[in-house]
Amino acid sequence: MVRHGLVSLLALSALAFSATAEELVNNTSRELNSSGARDLLAGNTALGRGIVAYYDSDGTVHAQKGDGYLFGRWWIDRSGRHCVEWEGSVREACMGIVQRGPDRFVAVRNGRPVGDFSVVEGNPNNL
Question: Whole-model pTM?
């Protein structure tokens, strides 16, 4: 993630792309609403390829990508999209969350999958 380029996107947007649009439309996928997205992330850690992000219930997000650390604020907008604004960034970025299975999720931006991730309870990485 580049500080002012991709960092302005969500932590989830940096996750490895592996879902196709066709996979997102199958019967096992469903987009989370605002309360579902909030319940999924608040106080928990999202794990993706090369990035780990802890979403504190106070609205802050702490992430580690490689040897770098990121800090910002997060919230869920009225349409259920997950939004992040990274410290030092000039804009926020928002994405939907689609559940593909019991422990598999996909960040979606403008109707397109951006990256897969899973979620673990709490902050096991002490971010």
Answer: 0.78
